Amino acid sequence: MNNQNIQRRQSMLLATVISLVIMFGASSSANAQTTYKVGDRIEAKVSGEWVKAEVRKVEANGSLYIRHDGSSGDVLTFPDYVRPATAATPTDNRKNPGNQTVDQPTQATNANADANVNANKYGTRDARTCKDMKAPVKGAPTAALAKQYVICDIEKVSGPYLYLVENVRVEVGDGRPFNPNLDINVPEINVRLPIYSIRGSLTKYQCYEVNLNFTVSAPGKNCTRYEEPKAKGDCYKTTFGDWRCTMTDLSGTNGTWFPGVSPPKP
Q: CA-CA distances (angstroms) from residue 134 to 98, 131, 225, 245?
C-alpha cells in the first residue's frame, strides 16, 4: 500500500471521529441543564404532554414548584418531569397569516374525566374524626385511645393537602407535671393536669387533589409518603376536658419520604 492510500484512509478516519464528536457534543448540550432557578421558563410533563411553565421555587432536594401557563397556583414536580423550554414553532395557515411564531396547543382539560376519577377529590378515603375525645376522665389514656387521638390529630385537610396516616403504633409513658419552659404554644392545655409522653411509629401521607393536568396530581401518583419509625410526642387534656395526642418523627431524612405514590386505599 503506497503512502497516498494510507494518507487517504487516515483522513477518512479522522473525519469520522470528528463527526462523532460533534454529534455527541450536540446531544450532550441539549441535555446539559439538570438544575433550574426561580424564573426559568421550562416545559413540564403533564398527563403525558409537555406544557409551558415557570419555575417558582427550588427545593434543596431538587424538586421544583412550578406554575403552568394559564393556572393560578403552584404545584410540586420533579426534575424527571421537567426540561428547558423549547422555542415556539412557526406555522402557516389562515388563522396565522404571515407565518407568525406561535406556541403549539396543549391538551385541553377533560372536566368530566377529572370529576369521575374518584368520589373523593383526593382519590382516597376521607380523614377520620373522633366524635368524643374525653375518655378517660381521669388518669392516662390507654395505648388504643392514644392511637385513636393521634389519628384524629393528624388526619385533616390543611391548605391544598389532605393528610392521612396508616400503620400507627403508640406507647404511653408516665405522666409528668406541666412545664412552662417545655410546654409552650400548646393550644388549650390544662396546666393543672399531668402530661403523658408517647412514642411509636406511623406512615403519613400528604396528598394533592387529583388533577389530570398535572403530573404530581395524576391519579395514583398524587401523594408523598413519609415513614416515621421514631415518632415522639405527648397526650394532654385541654381546658374543655378533651384529649389531644400529637406525635411526629423529627429525625427523618430524605431517605424516609417518597413522592409520587398512591394514596391509602379507600
A: 74, 10, 31, 12
Dihedrals phi, psi of 162, to nearest 5 degrees:
-110, 125
Of 8, 89, 11, which Cα lies nearest the Cα of 50?
Answer: 89
pTM more than 0.90: no
| Domains of the chain, CATH where assigned | 36-89 (2.30.30.140), 143-261 (no CATH)
Residues 6+ apart with CB under 8 A from 100: 90, 91
Any bridge partners for residue 175, and if so which? Answer: 196
- The grid coordinates of residue 173 equal 409513658
List pLDDT tens digits, range 149-179. 999 999 999 988 999 999 999 999 999 999 9
Distances (CA, A) of 47 to 50, 76, 107, 203, 242: 8, 14, 9, 28, 45
Q: What is the pLDDT of residues 132-144, one digit of tens each?
A: 999 999 999 999 9
- Please check whether residue 150 is in contact with residue 112, taking contact to mean a CB–CB distance below 8 angstroms: no
Upstream peptide bond of 90 is cis (omega within 30 degrees of 0): no
Expressed in angstroms, the distance from the first to the final Cα of the chain is 79
